[in-house]
Each structure stands twice: as C-alpha cells, then as structure tokens.
Design a protein that fits this description.
Among the domains are: about 30 residues, no CATH class; about 40 residues, no CATH class; about 160 residues, IlvD/EDD C-terminal domain-like (Glucose Oxidase, domain 1), CATH 3.50.30.80. It has 20 helices and 14 strands. α17 links the parallel β9 and β10. The chain binds FE2/S2 (inorganic) cluster. The site of FE2/S2 (inorganic) cluster has 10 residues, from loops.
C-alpha cells in the first residue's frame, strides 16, 4: 500500500483545517492538484546578502524547484538563519546551534515530506544538517560550491589562506597597501565559498562522503554550469527519495561516519570537521567520540594537494576529477556498501573515475604524506582531549618542549604580542586562554594567532600555539586546538603560567604541563571562574547548555532528535 505523505495531514483533508491549510496557499496561484498527493519538498535556503559565500543560492533554489516540479513534487522554499563566516561577531560558531534549531523547527512544523539543504559558507552546512537530522526526513544536500581560484600577481591565492599571510607578506615580501587592496578582490573572484580546503570545502566533502549529496557534487565550482545541473538533478532525486522513504537515519549509519573520517584525512580537511561531525552524530544518534577520529583517520594517507596543507585550490581539484577520484582511491579503507542519497552504494557510485592530474590528487600507493589524519592528544593539559592537524604542522615541532608564553584573553594577546619587550623566542609555546565554547563565548577561530612581529622579521614561520579555541580551515601551523575541558570552566589550561614548561609529542599523542601535581592542585584551589559573558537571551542559553569541544559543542538540550511527528494540531 502507498504510504501516506506527511503533508497529507495539512493539505489532504476535506475538513475545515484542510480548507485553511490550502486556501492561503492558493493565493500564490497553485492549482488544486498541487495539494493532492504531490510530495512537498522544502527547499531550506541559507541565502543571505550577509553571507556572500551563499549569495548565489537564491538563483539555485529556482533550479532545484525546476527539478522538483519535473519529478512531480511541490517545491516550497523557506529561509533559515544564515551564518556569514567573515562578518558575524563574535563568531559564527556561537550561532551554529541556533541556526540548527531554526532549521529543525521549520522542517518539523511545516507540511514538508522531503528537504533540500542549500548550503555553502562554513557553518551553513553543519547547522542545517544537524537540524535536519533531528527531524529525520528524506534529505539531500546541494553544496553551493567554491569560488574560482584566487589569482593575484601571477600567483594562485587561496581565499582565507591568504589573509593569514598578510602580516608576513607585508613585512617580508614588500607587499604595499595597494597590493593588499588589490588582493582583496583577487582572492574573491566569483560567487561561491572559500576555495582552499578550508572549512566550507571540508564540509562539502563531508556531506558527500557521508552519502548526503549526489556523487561528485562537493567540488564543482559555484559558477560552473555543471553545478546547476547538479542542483536540478538533486531536485528530481529528492522526490524519489520521499517515495522510497529514504530518510537521513538510513544513510547516516556509524559506517557512513567512519567513511567520512577516512575521506577527511585524505583531503587534508579542516579541524572543524571534528566538531561538526561529532555534533551531527549526536543528533542522529550514532555513537562517535574524539578517539574515533584518531583511530580511523590518523593512518590514512594524504592524497589531495590543496592549500592550506598543499599547493592547489578547489578549482584544480575539480578539474583533476574531484572527490570521486579520492573516494575511489580510498576504497580499501571504506565501507563501500553504505547507501547514499541516490539509493546506490559508495562502491557503485564511485567505480569509474579518472584522475586527470596526479599532482593534485595522488594515488593511494604514492600519497603526498603518510598518516595524515588529525591526531588526538591527551595529557594533564587536556584531560578530555585536544587536536592537531599534522598535515598542516611543522615536522620539526611535532616533538618539542618549550616555555609557555601565556595570554589570558584575545584582548591581552593583541595588546602584548608585538611588544618588542615581550620575552619570547621561536622555541616558546604560545598559550591562549578563554577562547573556548563557554569562555569567549562560541569558540572562535583564533587558535592560529599570528606570531610576534619581531620573530616574523627574523623569518620564523611557525611556532606551537595551544588554545581551547578553533582554527580556520584555511589556516596552517603547529596549532593545538579544542583543548578540553576549556579554561573558562577550570580546565588545566586555565592554570598555565608564564614560564611553565610544556611538552608535546604528537607521535605519542601527549600534551603535558610539566609541573608537579601538588603545584597544579594548589593553583586549581586558587582558581576563580571568570564572570559569565552574557546575562540574557540566546547567548545565556548557549553558555548554560553548550557542551565541550570533544563532544561537538552542541547544546545538551539539542542532542538526539524528536522525529517528524507533531503531537498538537493547529486548531
Ligand atoms: Fe564563507 Fe570561507 S568565508 S566559506
């Protein structure tokens, strides 16, 4: 027997409420048959003029609608909170969970049978996927795609990656103020999101490797006509998915998450991958912990030569064959039987791929680097864990003992970092506190703070930096992030003092504050928690409920899902 559509409870009844639900929609000019058995497809759009990376998604929604209508569906677009990475203060991460709540409640409360998520900029992908997971309808993601390669002064410049070099370029490569001004548009030449393997590209690869996009969708540039084809085909496919009742929970199995960890390691994806994947797993009810990333991903070879770890950019990646080539290369590490949104398995989808440029995508037998996945560190400085991305770090610093130079807050850092009298050299370890989920609040991407000017002038390119914050996916360096528990709730990081010695040994996965236990205990007893950063509103809710980084920094009240059933009606 044909399963009743969810939207039937709104549109299918011939009583008073059926009249109410249909009648107001009729003011848009829909014929009556639109309400009689067509699957209603919600097109969840993160378009906003305040999110330039998603500026083209308004047009894309129309293309998706074309596909939905062709397949016999009824497309209805709706807006959700959009998060512009380079604009929102203090950090978009503070609002990821808010945007996920918005997405979840919008999907559940409305007559929607299936969902298309239109995403792009960093947080717009995880937030909408998290929200959709908590409802668990058939869902497909259309990633908006990267910008064309940045180009300036004959160089390929990665958006995001370049801005971390501005201070160094100005000091050491005689970039003038005019050059920097020109580079602003040179690194943002078209519509789309950052075109390095930053967080947005990582998120696009994440959703494809989880099975949530049509094969090949992640890497197509935003302005390539094939992106539009992908959007239209996704519109057609979601209607079929509703008929097949192919829900997120059928695709997002533990094995799909393991696949995604493998792929992320091979593409050199952002460290933000961990925090978002953990949060998504928490919503769909899959057991996943920080150690899984190390266990599954750290032995995976690096295959993709993209900035910030490598040389090329997303456009090159696409022309070389894109993510399908990588997935095919990785088959021996993957669960190839996992199902994806097109109803086929990973093995079936990624069988016939051709690599057009081995400089961009290496073969698994000749990788760019062995053991490239993110490493999870433990020790008295991070009892619940901290992470480092070895592919973006300096080999010579992977085992190091250094003197701590401590900054209590970001403001403290800005005041003192370029002070010529600051007692610091390249062997020191920069420790940055109060940038975690509760402390900042929102865990901003500040972990890769610039080095002191006096050391940059000497030609120093990297130093160890430790914090409870995050790092932009476009950044590189020997940066230890996501220290958990964070300093603002009394983690050991809060107790580090200038001059303490810190030991890092990535191979042994160790991060240790070398002081006596009694001294540590003394400092812990004397520690006073900072005052909360908000007295009201969403930020207070966030501070009171946010979980630590090793759990994905979701709100505890948002864990899991409530399904698609609404218990009370509109009377
Ligand atoms: Fe939007 Fe990088 S700022 S993707």
């Amino acid at each position: 027997m044909k399963k009743k559509l969810r939207s039937h409870d709104w549109f299918g009844k011939d009583d008073k409420m059926g009249f109410v639900h249909r009648s107001w929609f009729r003011n848009q000019g829909y014929p009556d048959d639109y309400f009689r058995g067509r699957p209603v497809i919600g097109i969840c759009n993160t378009w906003s003029e305040l999110t330039p990376c998603n500026g083209h998604l308004r047009d894309f929604a129309e293309i998706v609608k074309r596909g939905v209508a062709e397949a016999g569906g009824f497309p209805l677009e709706f807006p959700v909170t959009s998060l512009g990475e380079t604009i929102m203060k203090p950090t978009t991460m503070l609002f990821r969970n808010l945007a996920s709540m918005d997405t979840e409640e919008n999907i559940r409360a409305n007559p929607i049978d299936g969902v298309v998520l239109l995403t792009g900029c960093d947080k717009t992908t995880p937030s909408t996927v998290m929200g959709a997971c908590s409802v668990d309808l058939p869902t497909i993601v259309v990633p908006g795609g990267p910008m064309l390669n940045g180009r300036f002064k004959g160089e390929c410049l990665g958006s995001g990656s370049f801005n971390w070099m501005v201070k160094e370029k100005t000091l050491n490569e005689n970039y003038t103020a005019e050059d920097i001004l020109e580079a602003e548009i040179g690194t943002a030449r078209s519509q789309g999101h950052c075109m390095s393997m930053g967080t947005a590209s990582t998120m696009a690869c994440m959703v494809e490797s989880l099975g949530l996009t049509l094969p090949g969708a992640a890497t197509i540039p935003a302005v390539d006509a094939r992106k539009k084809v992908m959007a239209q085909l996704s519109g057609r496919r979601i209607v079929e998915m509703v008929k097949e009742d192919l829900r997120l929970s059928k695709i997002l199995t533990r094995k799909a998450f393991e696949n995604s960890i493998v792929v992320n390691a091979a593409v050199g994806g952002s460290t933000n991958f961990l925090i978002h994947l953990l949060a998504i797993a928490g919503r769909i009810g899959v057991e996943l912990n920080l150690e899984d990333f190390d266990k599954i991903g750290s032995k995976i070879p690096l295959l993709v030569n993209l900035k910030p770890s490598g040389k090329f950019l997303m456009e090159d990646f696409y022309y070389a064959g894109g993510l399908p080539v990588v997935i095919n290369e990785l088959k021996k590490y993957l669960h190839t039987e996992t199902i994806t949104v097109n109803g086929k398995s990973v093995g079936e989808n990624y069988n016939n791929t051709i690599c057009y440029n081995r400089e961009v995508i290496a073969a698994v037998e000749q990788p760019l680097q062995h053991n490239a996945g993110i490493a999870v560190l433990k020790g008295n400085l991070c009892v619940d864990g901290a992470i480092i991305k070895p592919s973006a770090a300096s080999k010579k610093l992977m085992k190091h003992r250094g003197r701590a130079v401590v900054f209590e807050t970001m403001e403290d850092y800005h005041i003192r970092i370029d002070d010529p009298n600051l007692d610091i050299d390249e062997n020191c370890i920069i420790v940055l506190k109060t940038v975690g989920p509760v402390g900042y609040p929102g865990m901003p991407e500040v972990g890769n703070v610039d080095l002191p000017e006096k050391l940059l002038r000497k030609g120093v390119k990297d130093m160890i930096r430790i914090s409870d914050g995050r790092m932009s996916g476009t950044a590189a360096g020997t940066v230890i992030l996501h220290v958990s528990p964070e300093s603002a709730i009394g983690g050991t990081l809060a107790l580090v003092k200038n001059g303490d010695m810190i030991e890092l040994d990535v191979e042994k996965r160790k991060l240790h504050l070398a002081i006596a236990d009694e001294e540590l205990q003394k400092r812990r007893s004397a520690w006073v928690a900072p005052s909360p950063m908000a007295a009201r509103g969403y930020v207070k809710l966030y501070i009171n409920h946010v979980q630590q980084a090793h759990l994905g920094a979701d709100l505890d009240i948002l864990q899991g899902g409530s399904g698609d059933v609404i218990t009370r009606d509109l009377h």
